[in-house]
Specification:
Elements lengths: L3 H18 L5 H10 L6 H9 L6 H13 L2 H9 L10 H5 L2 H15 L5 E5 L4 H10 L3 E5 L10 E9 L2 E9 L8 E9 L3 H12 L3 E10 L13 E7 L3
Parallel strand pairs: 1-2, 1-5, 5-6, 6-7
Antiparallel strand pairs: 3-4
Pfam family, one: Pribosyltran
Organism: Thermofilum adornatum
InterPro entries: PRTase-like (IPR029057), PRTase_dom (IPR000836), Pur/Pyrimidine_PRTase (IPR050118)
Length: 243
């Protein structure tokens, strides 16, 4: 049975998603998407949802989010915000803190992981906004692995990240009690490329005697990281780009 607080989440997400998408697409196009997915709604009603004067009922809100996702408009929002310079460098910092990108990320995460996650884990720093919002949407605990210990009196889980430019080894640390034993963990990151940070976070989950149930990212620039995941781990990426 869904609680009233849980019912409010898709209502808020549907409003935020529609408001965000109205900045990227014509109202008529959004109306067509909903109509094609057999969602009964008038254009005046759609306008009220976008403005936020009225929120859609819980079940209708879920159907709205599902319909929008089916047309790949979430990826288009990220594409509209994406910038890659002549050296192949992605504007990660901008994407990681962009309100529109984070809004569609929350909607996608809700559809993919609602009621299946206990902890959202990320590595500082650019993954924190995404992970924080996903933790809220999924009613999960937030865990952030950092490059330094905050206290010598706390027991930490640690893992290594092998960096290539320049060649070095970086350690990340997470207080051991931030991931309870047997908890279901979603790893969130703004950008996936080589999978080095992902591998370190997977090792932390393993050492915590917990389970990685999913990986979520805003942008993926290769498929190298996918080989790190077992078949039962679900992955969701808003925009895949092969460089």
């Amino acid at each position: 049975m869904i609680t009233r607080s849980e019912a409010a989440i898709p209502q808020i997400l549907a409003w935020r998603a529609l408001k965000t998408l109205s900045k990227h697409f014509e109202l008529g196009y959004l109306y067509e998407i909903l109509a094609e997915n057999k969602i009964r709604i008038s254009q005046p009603e759609l306008k009220r949802y976008i403005v936020g004067t009225v929120l859609p009922p819980q079940l209708k809100a879920v159907h709205i989010i599902q319909a929008l996702r089916s047309e790949n408009v979430f990826a288009q929002v990220v594409q509209n915000k994406l910038k890659i310079d002549e050296n192949g460098v992605v504007n990660v910092a901008e994407l990681a803190y962009d309100e529109d990108v984070l809004t569609v990320a929350m909607a996608e995460a809700y559809l993919s992981f609602f009621r299946s996650v206990d902890v959202v884990l990320t590595a500082a720093v650019n993954g924190i906004p995404l992970a924080s919002l996903l933790a809220w949407v999924l009613d999960a605990k937030l865990a952030v692995a950092r490059r330094e210990r905050e206290s010598q009196s706390i027991k930490y889980l640690s893992a290594q990240i092998f960096q290539t430019d320049p060649p070095s080894i970086v350690h990340i640390y997470l207080p051991a009690n931030h991931i309870p034993k047997n908890s279901r963990v979603l790893i969130a990151d703004d950008l996936l490329r080589s999978g080095r940070t992902l591998k370190a976070l997977l090792n932390i989950v393993r050492d915590a005697d917990a389970y990685t149930v999913g990986v979520f990212a805003i942008v993926s620039l290769s498929n190298a990281w996918r080989s790190l995941l077992s078949e039962e781990v679900k992955s969701r990426v808003l925009l895949n780009i092969q460089q």
